[in-house]
Amino acid sequence: MTGFLAQRLLQYILTLIAGSFAVFVATEFSPGTVSSKILGPYAVQSQVDSLSARLRLDDPLIERYGRWLTTLAGLTDNPMAAKEVGLGLSDPRGTRYVGNLGFSLMLKEPVIDVLADRIGYTILLTVCSIALIVPIAFGIGVWCGLKAGSLLDRVLSTLMAVLTALPEFAFAVGLTLVFVIWLGWLPGTSMMLPGDKWGMVSQLVMPTAVLVVASATYVARIVRASVVETRKRPFVRAAELKGLPPRVVVVQHVLRNALIAPVTVILLQVNWLLTGVVVVESIFAYPGVGSLLLQAALFGDIYLVQALTLMALTVAVGTQFLGDLCYMALDPRIRVA
Amino acid sequence: MKTPAPHPYLPTLVGQLQRQELDRREFLRTATLLGMTAAAAGVLAGLPAPAQAQAAKPRGGTLRINTTVYDVKSPPTATSTAHPLIYSQVVEYLARTGADGVTRPHLLQGWQPSADLKSWTLRIRPGVKWHSGRAFVASDVVWNLTRLLSDEVGSSVLGLMEPYLLNKIDTGQVNDKGRKIFRHEWWSPRAIEVVDTMTVRLNLKAPQLAVPEHLGHFPAVMLFPEERGVFGPGSIGTGAFKLTEIQPGRRAVIEAVRGYWGEGPWLDRIEFIDVGGAETAIANALVSKQVDGAFQVLPDSFAILRNQAHLKFYEAVTSDTAVARMNVRNKPFDDARVRKAFRLAADSQKVAELTLGSFASAAEHHHVAPVHPEYARLPAFNRDVEQAKRLLAQAGYPNGVDVEIVIQQNPPLHLRHATALQSLWKDAGIRASIKTVPNPQYWDIWMTAPLGITVWAHRSLGVMNLSLAYRSGVAWNESGYANPAFDKLLDEAEAMPDPKVRSSKMAEIQRLMQEDGPIVQTYWRKLFTFYDRRVIGFEMHPEYSVYCNQLALSAA
Q1: Distance separating alpha carbons of residues A324 and B235, to the nearest angstrom
Q2: The pTM is what?
């Protein structure tokens, strides 16, 4: 196990370095410079050149990447915060500390503060969504799997297929038209700000509903398929012939063996919920990391994009690791090498 | 200090008003530019006094306004008209242009230009204090203007005032990209003078009519010198509010201060709420009363919002526009015949309707709007496809041309605009493909792309955008247009305070732009928004300015 953990940790670090370097190289080919993004479109060329010189932006790519890495590792100061650069940027933690991700060019704040504000909301939405997705998906999926071929199973399966195919934005707009514009029962945006006349819970209803519908229907279909497949296995037939109660057959024999595929899919959904719900966050103005990544990418805020990439890689590696542990728990035959 | 004599042109203006050769609004705008107080000009123009409104407004309450919440650490480097909505409530301008297009002194009590418009004496308003209690004085103005015009700060005010206050010096060095390194300095040691503690004088190297307008340019706020140019929560200003909290991209909060020198403030607190870039989110927030007003609303949301009983509609006719700009450094736009062909192949009325519906009016390809006091009415510029084809053939393109037009991704009206042009140009053999780029990336290429659509905000005088965009060699001349005849006409126009006289010069400029200019300009925008009916004192400003010290909330 120790070897397994060490191997995974090494893979994680190498993945982060490769990913961050790839983003650095990609932004090298995007239009504009850090200076022009800071000063905006109306600064004259001499002003942009002056700032570029102060920030040493004309140094080779490898040197600039190395500077970013050493700043992240807390070995060097963040050049953008230097007094002589004159940008007036400040970080309450100082200019040199481990985990210094630099400043957001778009928001002129330390990246770590920008992320900290948004990650909490993303986790909240993820938790609320998963808390509904899992019971709904498993409830419908197991029932349909056990009653495969029945009229209700066919109706539910068709409904799930339709809802899975429905784009999130279409469903979101439909909900808005009915519950915000027509009925006025729910707020139009989910900004999660204090003092809003709508409480936090009512602001969470619509983004959560859209995510639950988008995910639960898909997971339910996977659960159904897995249950149907497992029920055909000989050991399930043997358990039934032994005279075990149906509930015991389902819970101890069918479900346990049917869980591996659904667990994989659910962990992928967690990955998506934590890093990629751009459409829902944009439509409902929800302050999560998905909409932040979109805005940062469109702006060309390379330091924020870097940090969000690292976060996405961390979530991906983490959910993969969690998945491996779940497989070992579900199937004793699976062990790490 | 001896009070300078009034501008010698003022009696002429008064005469024109009396003979009804000038309407009241044009008189007001020009008279105040030349240093007459707005009150005196208003009396002469027979307008009612506005002062009574102050007593009628209720006090207290919190207002929530939707806007993009930008970082405000460096107001001098503000990049859009949305940027100052927050910081301009704390730190203020020397002059402000109202929704009526009249520029009035604000932190200044008044100004006197010399007869040749090359010397401007600015008088500080007595009684204006910083939040710290210190008086606002002439040295504060000099410190701020010097800073705004420095290379290190990077403010767009430099590009605006460079033609008449600065010299551009070639240092003789080049940077790593091979570009020459320039620096700027005052054109003369006497370019800016402290006459006394309450008076500053600007001595210009060229006549300039629009100095007061430039002093109200959105980044040109007066910062508290002791804070050395860093602005943030708790910063000291002269405004009616103090910034107490800001989270860029999310929210900012300002709270009323006691003892403000001007009107109000009536509200206790204002929250600026950022709902991200989605237009639907702005409309939804207004419908569900999560915000009381919005910085701007686009036409796509009008239908939903106009049916909301609690919302009131506000509109302004402006010179806000978007130009399809041809970069003359690139073929085929280096040929004036091609440029004219592009204009002749377009139909301004159709493009305006397709782009913005009833929220636009047709333009005439010269960037001077009917709302400008010096606008000259020319014969209609009609679409003529056959003439366009002939011009293209004469220029060496008998089979037409293939071009790519670059547009910003947001808002969607840019795509409608480009598509309308694309469709109309096709008839003349102009085959345009449309390339959409994210907004920030457009600003990286706006000065170099051969053909692009650029938004130009409203400015209160016709000469202002012409000087910013088309004068040879200026910082924002995105087209590379360099026509000495145009420059000469513009120099002459900027030295003419009388809008009627200036209008005859503008007619020549407008004709030249239609014949030779680098743009296809098809519409002028009407800007609009919605605010809750409880909000008192709001006016839709053509530059989106909001003067929060004048706002109040009624109880119901």
Answers
A1: 53
A2: 0.87
